[in-house]
TrEMBL record:
InterPro entries: Glycg_phsphrylas, Glyco_trans_35, Pyridoxal_P_attach_site. Keywords: Allosteric enzyme, Carbohydrate metabolism, Glycosyltransferase, Pyridoxal phosphate, Transferase. The keyword Transferase applies. Pfam families: Phosphorylase. It is an enzyme of class 2 (transferase). This is Alpha-1,4 glucan phosphorylase. It comes from Stomatobaculum longum. Allosteric enzyme that catalyzes the rate-limiting step in glycogen catabolism, the phosphorolytic cleavage of glycogen to produce glucose-1-phosphate, and plays a central role in maintaining cellular and organismal glucose homeostasis. It catalyses: [(1->4)-alpha-D-glucosyl](n) + phosphate = [(1->4)-alpha-D-glucosyl](n-1) + alpha-D-glucose 1-phosphate. One of its GO terms (molecular function) is glycogen phosphorylase activity. Its EC number is 2.4.1.1. The modification N6-(pyridoxal phosphate)lysine is found at K602. GO terms for biological process: glycogen catabolic process.
Amino acid sequence: MNTLKLRDYTGKALSECTILELYNAALALTQDACRNRGYNSGKKKVYYISAEFLIGKLLSNNLINLGIYDDVKAELAEAGKDITELEEFEYEPSLGNGGLGRLAACFIDSLATLGLPADGVGLAYHCGLFKQSFEDRKQHMRPDYWRKWGMANWMKRTDKHYKVQCGDLELLSTMYEIDVTGYGSKCGRLRLFDLDTVNEGLIGSGIGFDKKEIEKNLTLFLYPDDSDEDGKLLRVYQEYFMVSNAAQLILDECVERGSNLHDLADYAAIQINDTHPSLVIPELVRLLTEKGIEEKEAYQIVTDVCAYTNHTILAEALETWPKHFFKAVVPHLMPIIKRMNDAVKAKYEEPSVQIIDEYGNVHMAHMDIHYSHSVNGVARLHTDILKETELNNFYKLYPEKFNNKTNGITFRRWVIECNPELTELITEKIGEGWKTDARQLEQLIPYAEDETFLQCILNRKNTKKHKFSAWIEQYQGDKVDPESVYDVQIKRLHEYKRQQLNLLWAIDRYLHIKDGYRPRRPVTVFFGAKAAPAYVIAKDIIHAILAFSSIVNNDPEVSPYLKVVMLRNYNVSMAEKLIPASDISEQISLASKEASGTGNMKFMLNGAVTLGTMDGANVEIAELVGEDNIFTFGQSSEEVIEHYKNADYVAKNWYKKDKRLAAAVDFLVSEEMLEAGDRKLLKQLYDELLGKDWFMTFPDFESYCKTKDKALAAYEDRMGWAKKMAVNIAKAGYFSSDRTIDQYNNDIWHLEKDC
Ligand code: CR1
């Protein structure tokens, strides 16, 4: 029974409160409710260390998980206030970037829900990534000052401080905590470290700042521009600061719980989320030996405690740091890393598995693999590629370490919170059980034949489409026809994700309409993406989309049939609005390159049908829903890997033999485009595609167009489409992060549940 009332936190009638007062009251109430629940505890705890936690807004999610959302909503309504006003008022935390960070957020939700003792550990960035706007049809970046209004209050300052030594520089950290509520369970915590001396005043124009002043800039931004030497050094400082704090916290807590350090693995499991936290390994060795443990034994302890998750095979993301960086930032770790490398060398001569290569570069992933007991990929195909190709030499050494953990998403945020309309419909049919046991969604399968149910699904989708259309008009002025097909690609901007392929399709359709073709139903193509500050081609793709959208949307001959909308500052909150309204889920990465994807799972759960390549978790989605309920196209991952191996792909040959493709590509530098956009940027993109097209857009163009046409035609059979929606929803249960976390726990961490 909930006895907490908002009224007790305001000191006056709710009807007389400002929105900020109501918000702060709701926040205080949530924090009390959380404290009343208590925190999951136990002898062994998992520490999920991650550079990102893309947690999204907190209020509604916490109220739902604490089971008091309806009470608070009703109390507000009685006072003539609408809870959605509070939801809109809330500002989204900026502590993450993309899938890796959102996965970490879903995981801490599931950890709390499943009753597993766990902390997320990371950094308390002041401005996170950046806030995106569009000026002159280009991406502009401003600092995202999210720690304002009530938001900073979610993050409680603690009196925990640790010394972190970086060469001559001594830093003193402060730990902050954010409560993580579980669904109907006790809570967990996110522990974020900051430096009191960091100074937001250092930020100059845009997101520029003096990269040398570490004490003032350390936690200003997530992934500060590392295209120069100072930027790279700053990243190493950040990474070391994060893990040194983590390591000290972990040892302190484990000793408190009774560990004598020799038995650390009985008290702690550390999950290294990609390579950003990899320095935790030598740092732990350093601290353990400082406390009197022999270095050899320390290696074993660390190996037993640590587990590593790989999230990508893209070379650029597999961190390697020249030795001199480490000598500058962590001179005291370098001899340890060197001895760890010597120990590897003594056992294995193969050059490709060394931690320090012949040029003196330190390979973070290699250190992780040698000194962890588990190495996992994030979808079956991805793990297979790691084993058979990318990390094959390591797999041969340690087959027992490799395992797969297909990603998942929390259903609390990704349907219960963001799609109450669909949630209600599902619950009406199969009861509440699916909310804690997602596989029960399969009970919906028989309803895929029930026309009344199918009509209900269509109606609810329609409601969401209308809502989104109203919202987007108010947010950025775009008028979207709710009767159009919502065709959506929202994710970080990267050439391998191939937003450019989708753009080429849109151009092709535009050219057809100009030629007199009149589609039966309009399509709205939505893009939402941020490009990394130093990623030139990604920014060029955004520019091309914006320039093209201005042409299409302002052409009265075309716009009744085709619209292109580039969403400004795409973030979690926007995804929560758009995914429930989406019809087609664009998952069109070059096969083998998208480790998993998690957006694909969110769309499926909300009844959007996937148009995708056989990549990442799409493969598992296809297997679950069957070929009638997904649209797949393009080269297979084997073919792609073979082309890379033989280096035999020549973009120009495809351009020469496919007229439709050539026309779309040429349009990028047509008069219309050059009038709407910047010649240099458009030409740069055009040249990149024709001269390189590293992610093989051209060979997949024809099958993409054909398959998209097929999907659009299928959409016209409304009952047939609704059936696909129903099957997708019913089969989405597998992708609950509760399942994923259960597997991590059973196979890797072995924690006892506190419930
Ligand atoms: C992958 O690109 C995956 C997430 C979470 C991303 C994406 O396919 O779903 O991780 N990788 O596992 C990443 O951000 C730095 O690497």
